[in-house]
Amino acid sequence: MLLASALPLACGGTNNPADTTQESQAVEPDVQSAQQTPVDPQQEAAQALADAFAEEFASSLQASFDEYQRIHEQGGTPEEIAAYREHFENSNAMTVDQAREAWMAPSDLAGATVGEVLTALGAVAGLPVDTNGLEEHLDAPCEVDPEGKSVVHMLEATCRSIGVTPVYPEGNPYREDGLAITFEDGPRSEPMVFAGPFMIRTSEVSEHAPYASGEVRVEALAIGLPEGMQSAAHSMGEWIRVEAVVDEQQNNLRQHVDMTTLSQPQRCQNVMRVSTSEDLTSLLRGVEAIDSIEGKVTISIPTEVHELVFTPDRLDRQTVAGLEVNLKKLDTQCEMTVRGANADSLVVTWSPMIDAQTPMGVQHQSSYFFDETLEASLSLPAVPQALHVKLLETQTFSFPFELEDLPLQKYEQQPEARQELRFEGDTPVTFEFVAFQERDSDFPKVTLTTHNHTNKDIQSVQARFVYFDSLDNEIKDSYTTMQSQQFSMEPTPMVRAGEPTTGDHAAFFMPPETQYVRVTLSGIDFMDGTSWQSE
């Protein structure tokens, strides 16, 4: 209405054409401004809603972080702390026969219905089984013979017989929040085998075309293992090892043949997983499948358990079963040394106590063995009144496995043959110092330009940083590995063939008086799985 009434006044206020033009020009900017910025109530409401949502999300995120921090500082929720104490109490010794009996499926399941088998296996595993959607199968007789099968083997075979795949819970090992075994339609598609108490499968295969490289992840899973066995396997170790990955022509596809890969078993309620990743090379166009993956999975059984209690008035050395145990202090940071002939077979579990009845949470724990000595440490939210310790003497068993016939999907995108390394000059890579970055930080950085003189894309570079002062004196050096600074789901080269790349790199241990940095090349890992080392 305002625009409609304004225009006639502007045009008819005078008979002078020049005046009319002037007045029209004076009004036109208002008209254009009004036309360009109309008020859209819906857009305005949507923006207000988006702003409110963003503010609420930020507030919720901060609240979640604060809650997580609080729980961490206390060493867990009250329920988690109580569950941890229960697991500690149940970490008991067993014989090898008792351990094997514990992970085997009950023999009296022969002749039972599918529903009875699933329920019974869930009870043995200590996990509820959600059979929602399986009603048409539950009353049918189970045709799987339980003889000689582990609990997870019997469960997987029963599910395969009715065309479904079991899904095992993941998450916090001490949170009892109603997690259950559920089911997905269709049988498990990836190769799997059974060894001891474990199901072994390939949980992920990545093919990095066109670099003729890739990665395979192998996972071992067991359900319902006794607490002692799970406690004996909580530390870092080579619990699962891949020893061979071969194609149909029996060519080795492992990139790092002699590498030892450590991992730590993960558990959620009574499900225990351990996995390892193996880098692959020579995935050329003619390699359409992995013929076999051979390896072994290992488990420890606690054959003897020794329990000790330390209190503020009893911190002297204690001796048990020929082991000398020394708790250096009883504080928020506890350190313990165990010496003895069989210390290399020991596993330590802890339970700090607020008082005689109330367990305390644990923020962090670790242990390592060297020179016939076990060193263990514990971080706590407060000083405990007492510290209960169990030393588990363990016996280790390994079970071999072989996964067969793993088809590949991207073989047509791979090269027919691997390129031979070529480069001009004395070295395949040179570095150009550009500038200092974050010099005063605890983690100083330098900007470098990396020149790739080769015909291959580079995955990472190993180099020596040499630091010089104003008098050209070498004052310190450090070794580092530099790799791609781009974050991507797909493998990304650090430096492409023939293309220089400039980026910031950590300059570890760089003295403050450093005036310039010289970088020398030690080694290169290429995207195709090959490598180069300086002499």
Would you kindly provide a written description of the structure presented here, covering whatever features stand out?
- The chain is an alpha+beta fold and 535 residues long.
- It is 22% helix and 37% strand.
- The strands form six sheets. The chain has a five-stranded antiparallel β-sheet with strand order 3-4-5-8-7.
- Helix 1 runs antiparallel to helix 2 and helix 6 (114-125) packs antiparallel against helix 8 (151-161).
- The longest helix has 34 residues, at 41-74.
- It is globular, with a radius of gyration of 33 Å.
- It starts with a helix and ends with a strand.
Brief summary of the model shown:
With 535 residues, this protein is α+β, with helices and mostly antiparallel strands.
List descriptors:
alpha+beta; five-stranded antiparallel β-sheet; 22% helix; 37% strand
Main beta-sheet annotation: 5 strands, antiparallel
Beginning-to-end CA distance, first to last residue = 86 Å
Low-confidence stretches: 1-35
State the helix count. 9
Task: Label the structural class.
Answer: alpha+beta
> How much β-strand is present in the residues?
35-45%
Helix content: 10-25%
Which overall shape is indicated by the principal axes computed on the Cα atoms?
globular
- Find the count of extended strands (DSSP E, 2+ residues): 23
Task: Give, in spatial order, the strands making up the sheet with the most strands.
Answer: 3-4-5-8-7
The rounded Rg comes to: 33 Å
Q: What value does the average pLDDT take?
A: 87
